[in-house]
Amino acid sequence: MPTNASSPAAESVGGTPSAHALTDVTASDSTLRRFLHGLPGVDAVGLEGRAASLGTRSIKTTAKAYAIDLAISMVDLTTLEGADTPGKVRALGAKAVHPDPTDRTTPATAAVCVYPDMVATAKQAVAGSTVKVASVATAFPAGRAALAVKLADVRDAVAAGADEIDMVIDRGAFLAGNYLKVYDEIVAVKEACGASARLKVIFETGELSTYDNIRRASWLGMLAGADFIKTSTGKVAVNATPANTLLMLEAVRDFRTQTGIQVGVKPAGGIRTTKDAIKFLVLVNETAGEDWLDNHWFRFGASSLLNDLLMQRQKLATGRYSGPDYVTVD
């Protein structure tokens, strides 16, 4: 999309907005719209080609063992079902703390992710460990509720002990071009998180239709104060993909270059195997860099992924796969 001399994209270095261009871009709906639509358009063919190319990298032996442990430490072990019970959440918390009870060298996962009413139970289950408790909020997964309801959802989760809040944006407002409404909601949710909880902003990339929209949502979320930007709820047909995650990694890299502020990335939904996870770690390393290869800055939103990582870890250690009872069925 061509830009004129006064557009934010015209004041750029290397295809990203300059630090000067970020000044006051959220002052009004028109300035925010002009900024977001002034971002460089995404070359879909190039993006998908690079993601596919990076996915062919071969990781072997010692490097693979390191990658598996790193991936385990980045998992937000998740249960978000209407049938969740306190017993299920306690079991999930125990698994997050000691993913493999037979091998205490296995790292703990990054977090357990649950609905707000299960936060207190999860907090008790992981007490004394490094495992965080993340809670979805803001009328997850659709996000269709009044702002007051969304903020009450967040405050309840934080009061119950949530260390992290995973909010969903109003995709309807975003797709209608009402960017300032989305921005203001993220700012309000960030404030409701207080000083104790980090905020992950979920875009539901499968509903945003275009890569250009994913890029715009990424910058919008970061401008509003997101600590993480997250692909998906895991509740729609298209969730995390290498291409949309690569695009978001480029966004956080460029945002830090321009502002000095580092923001994390969380692909969620559809990442089920060790091979998948390692592909995403390669994307992180080759796009954002080593600074993001830490669970403070990169997470996997998953439920079944951990089991495959544990199976592959055991295979590397013993040379054979374990029987079907080696991992729990979540």
Task: List the SSEs and their pairings.
Blueprint: E1 12-13, E2 16-17, H1 29-37, H2 44-54, H3 61-73, E3 75-78, H4 86-97, E4 111-114, H5 119-125, E5 132-136, H6 147-159, E6 164-168, H7 171-175, H8 179-193, E7 198-202, H9 211-223, E8 228-230, H10 242-259, E9 264-266, H11 274-287, E10 300-302, H12 305-318
Parallel strand pairs: 3-4, 3-10, 4-5, 5-6, 6-7, 7-8, 8-9
Antiparallel strand pairs: 1-2
Helix pairs in contact: 2-10, 3-11, 3-12, 4-5, 6-8, 9-10, 10-11
Can you describe this structure in just a few lines?
With 330 residues, the protein is of the alpha/beta class. The protein has twelve helices and ten strands.
Give structural notes:
The chain has a single domain, classed as Aldolase class I (TIM Barrel), CATH 3.20.20. The longest helix is centred in the C-terminal third of the chain and has 18 residues. The strands form two sheets. It has an eight-stranded parallel sheet. Strands 1-2 form a two-stranded antiparallel sheet. The chain is built from twelve helices and ten strands. The radius of gyration is 20 Å and the shape is globular. It has 330 residues and is α/β, with parallel strands linked by helices. Helix 3 packs antiparallel against helix 12, helix 4 packs parallel to helix 5 and helix 10 packs parallel to helix 11.
Structural class: alpha/beta
Strand content: 5-15%
The average pLDDT value, as a whole number, equals: 91
Largest sheet, spatial ordering of strands: 9-8-7-6-5-4-3-10
Number of domains: 1
Query: What is the alpha-carbon Rg in Å?
Result: 20 Å
